[in-house]
Amino acid sequence: MDRMDRKVVIPGDLLSEEAKRSGEGTFVKDGKVYSLLYGLANDRDRINVIPLAGKYVPAPGDNIIGIVKDITFSNWIIDINSPYDGLLHISEFPKRIDSDEMSKYLSLGSSTMIRIKDVDSTMKVELTLNDRKLGLLKTGRIVEINHTRVPRLIGKGGSMISMLKKELNCNIFVGQNGRIWINGGAEDMDLALKTILLIEKEAHTSGLTDRIVDFLKKEKGAGN
Amino acid sequence: MKMIAMDESNISFFKEGLRLDGRRADEFRPLKIEVGVLARADGSCYVEMGGNKVIAAVYGPREVHPRHLQEVNRAIVRCRYNMASFSVEERKRPGPDRRSHELSKVSREALEPVIFTSYFPRSVIDVFVEVLQADAGTRTAGINAASVALADAGIPMKSMISACAAGKVADTIVLDPMKEEDNFGQADMPIAMTPTGEITLLQMDGHLTTDEFHQAMAMARKGCRDIYEIQRNSLIERYNQLGAELPVVQEAEVV
Description:
The complex is a heterodimer. Chain A contains five helices and 15 strands. By secondary structure, chain A is an alpha+beta fold. Chain B is an alpha+beta fold. In chain B, about 25% of the residues lie in helices and about 30% in strands. Chain B has helices at about 100-110, 140-150, 180-185, 210-240; strands at about 15, 20, 30-35, 45-50, 50-65, 75-85, 125-135, 160-170, 170-175, 185-195, 200, 205. At the A-B interface, loops of A face strand 5 and helix 4 of B.
């Protein structure tokens, strides 16, 4: 298994003498850039450190998958696979509804594609459903992977995910929080699940898309 | 375990310039660090330092319970140091005691300065240190393990923390005292520091003159720097093993 041509760094490693090259996963002290995390340093214009582990921290604009955890007078409290809960206000539902009818539309335990509208400095997370792309998930399956692996599942410019959708004959939605929704035939979903877990396991290796194509070919060949 | 003569007056700590276990004065005991040993924790680490066996687990950042402990602008760090009842010669009564409260507190204070707590307001980072076998210097082994476990959990930190003790036995300054040296020696001084030399833990029990203190400090600092290299190698090694097949557990055949 070949490795990506990136350097493994640990917290406190010196990455650069130029403060302006500080990217994500780094910090600047005395004009020098250091690693904030245990992960892979990506040396481009800026230096980013890609974490290998860690919890999802909500950011405005992220499309995620949430699960209804509680219902209060005018808010749904949504579990977003993070240390923080999300709040979906009744006014952020695409339709005008009464507060005593909230559980009719989104009941306890139901899953939904949802967007993060805003996050304030105390980590109050406001969510919205006001987009045609978003909505309740009624069929299909949800898998959870580590959110640090999501960029690998999507691939460069969406190359991996569009290949998967085509090859697997499934509808797939990848939430930035590491929850993934798959919808399709039962056998297609089984294979999709297997593939996604394989991608999660081998996320740190290079040439992954090609290897996944081979894997799918083999799996499909065995099925026929 | 063999009992060395209990009478303090006739112990010889050195034989032909070497210590009871064959070490030189400025050597620490063999150190083994394993990363990611627990599947359920967010980060974990197992450390063997001579006769010490310590496991550290990190959970979080996660929601704070009880709620009144939470801080609106930063994460809190909690640390629990605990000794297993079988970790010492005479069975230890399980549960927290005066000593483990103290060590929980100093371990937390040794680790907290390097954690970017402001990144995770209203949350908690829990660190659990369990001592499975004790042989003097469990707090330093615990801090070394916890620091690696924090990195494994993906917690943002300014740097790692490495810890090591220096002591005084038979009027000689030694690095990383083992049990006999700790029990019958004249002083024990554990420190924890960042690789750049900022000290986050400094304790001492026994007596040292100013000169001896400086000598012990220099020796412990050198020990910490060497331990840091082992910590870093263990994390890099862990990456290289990621995705490698897990060892297959042989199932016993039922007859």
